[in-house]
Amino acid sequence: MNAQQVAEAVRDAMFANDRASKALGMEILSIAPGRATLAMTVREDMLNGFEICHGGLITTLADSTFAFACNSHNELTVASGFTVDIVAPGRLGDRLTAIGEEVHLAGRTGVYDITVRNQREELVAVFRGKSYRIKGKPIVQGVSE
User: Fold this and answer.
1) Structural domain that includes position 35
2) How many domains, the chain?
3) Distances (CA, A) of 18 to 41, 55, 91, 99, 100
4) What are the beta bridge partners of residue 41?
5) Structure confidence by residue, pLDDT tens digits, 75-97
6) Are 116 and 98 in contact (CB under 8 A)?
């Protein structure tokens, strides 16, 4: 398999068991080695007491995007930390799209940047995740580049 096919196989395997992302209505729009794009529409049950999307849910969208991007190489990879800056609110009905890309990958560690924008292309959040790869533990058995 080539690297793109590996990323697609990992996407399918991960999403099949990803109850959290599914419960929030996330969709995977694209996957590639070291990259992922996910989207989510802000529902009424996602609003906080100020009638804006709960920041934790915006962060969850970014974190899910991070997970798909950093696992796309078919080595079990977990977050070792992240930072997030929410720069604008998500509102009821907004379609939030998170685009994640690998900034650096060496040995067991990686750095990924994720931007979250609404349907008007307005920046909503910036997320930087640090990953840790667990060598020798593929997501999908028997699949390699």
Assistant:
1) 3-133
2) 1
3) 17, 20, 25, 18, 18
4) 95
5) 999 999 999 999 999 999 999 99
6) yes
